[in-house]
Amino acid sequence: MATKEERNKARKAEVAEIREKLKVMRRAIQLAEIPAQMQVGKEFQDLFGFIKIEDEEEVRDWLREPKNLLLVELYIAERLARRGGKRKTMDTHGFEANLFENLVKLRDALWSGNYYPNRGTVHVIFDPVQREIFAAPYVDRILHHWIVGTIMKWQDKRLIYDSYSCRKGKGTLFGVKRLQHHILSVSCNMKKKAYVVQLDITGYFMHIRRDVLFSLVKENIDRQFPEETRDKRYTILIWAVTEVVFDDPTEGARLQGSYRDWIGLPDDKSLMTQPKGQGMVIGNFTSQTFSNIYLDPLDRFIHFVLGYKHYGRYVDDFFIVVTEEELPQVMRDIKAIEAFLSGLGLGLNRKKTKVTEVHKGVKFLGVIVRGFRLFPCRRLVRNFRKATYLVAVGKKDPEVIVSYLGMFSHLDAGKIIRKVFLSVGWDYVYGKKVAY
Do 369 and 362 form a contact (C-beta atoms < 8 A)? Predict the structure, then answer.
């Protein structure tokens, strides 16, 4: 029987061997020019076991074959798709039970042009608002990650800086702080009067025209892959995007929950009631990327043609910050914005159009921006109170409230956290939760 010292020595040798293999694979991946965004790293050891090669030169030779390179990219996409706690379904377990065999089947289907989206599930959520969600099967989610990983690095550089949704290094908090920056800039640090004009698109995802979306996505892919560089990978990418964009997920979707869940859901919030060729799924990994591409022309129209540099957008909610003198012109330009949106098959929700004087506080993405200070809005506080109670009674894990505390750490929310924690018998000392 091996001694403890011998076992430690063997374990260190094994770790060193794995690290060396990872170095080889990383160098090979870089030489093969796989998008850096798709590189995962530590889990490549599984792939080594599958392809049964270790030498760097052999790996490079193996990756020079386009079909093998596609398999590696799909493997990386699968590693990304399994993140975020989405590994608890039978669908996922079934795919991972024969991981590499299933990846090879997906690769071969794409290579031969025989890939077609599978039927998923549909359900309605009620938190934070009532919304219809279509969930694609795991194999399709892998393909969605591959598509986004292939196009997003190139596309992200060409979106305007103040487009916040689902972009690396950005998001809701970044959008809130950018709004605060624009407010302070226009108002000269709250010394002058300034206004925030907030606009919202009616039923955005349900009114997206798939033919227009495909033409915009294909135009960007054609720019990303100049004609002289197009190969089999480009052909597969166009095929996959075509199938994803024009797929009708309502056909054959498996219902989860009850038909009663749809009661009260407006028609412009449901894909079930949309005409053929209209609407995009909420829930697919590609949806947010495609939605950014779809509204990129609007961003450029407002920012460059109309000339509003203090502009920002998060999905279908966007704002323009102007001085008191510029406000009448913005109200006239709303008609021009509506006319531009009509060309995309969209329209403004006039009921949600708001004009707010900055000293009164501006609500955006769950946060109230009031000059130099940021406060959580009522709904965010209500959801935080509910999550805290569920954790306190043992119905939820403590991780549920971690995201709230992370968000609140950037806001003026110390008193709110203390009040909520005291209501369930906890104390709040120097940013820490202490149970009695």
Answer: yes
> How high does pLDDT run on average in the chain?
83
Strand 311-314 vs strand 317-323: parallel, antiparallel, or unpaired? antiparallel
pLDDT digits (tens, 9 = 90+) for 301-335: 999 999 999 999 999 999 999 999 999 999 999 99
Q: What is the pLDDT of residues 90-122, one digit of tens each?
A: 777 788 778 888 888 999 999 988 888 888 888
d(Cα 144, Cα 209) in Å, to the nearest integer?
Answer: 19
Residue type, 377: C
Count each helix (H run) and each strand (E run) in the chain, helices first: 15, 12
pLDDT value at residue 373: 92
How far the first Cα of the chain sits from its last, in Å, is 49
What's the confidence (pLDDT) of residue 319? 95
The pair phi, psi for residue 275, each rounded to 5°, is -65, 165
Copy the structure tokens of residue 257. Answer: 């929950």
pTM summary value:
0.81
Give, as one character, the DSSP assignment of residue 359.
G
DSSP 8-state secondary structure symbol assigned to residue 119? P
Query: What does the alpha-carbon distance between residue 22 and residue 19 come to, in Å, rounded to a whole number?
Result: 5
Cα 180 to Cα 18, 125, 208, 263: the distances in Å are 47, 31, 30, 38
| Degrees, nearest 5: CA angle 97-103-104 | 120
3-state secondary structure of 177: helix
Paired strand residues for 370: 373
Classify strands 194-200 and 354-357 as parallel, antiparallel or unpaired.
antiparallel
For residue 254, the model assigns a pLDDT of 83
Length of the chain: 436
Rounded distance, CA 16 to CA 14, Å? Answer: 5
Q: What are phi and psi of 413, to 5 degrees?
A: -130, 15
Q: What angle do CA 44, 45, 46 make, to 5 degrees?
A: 90
CA distance 32 to 19: 20
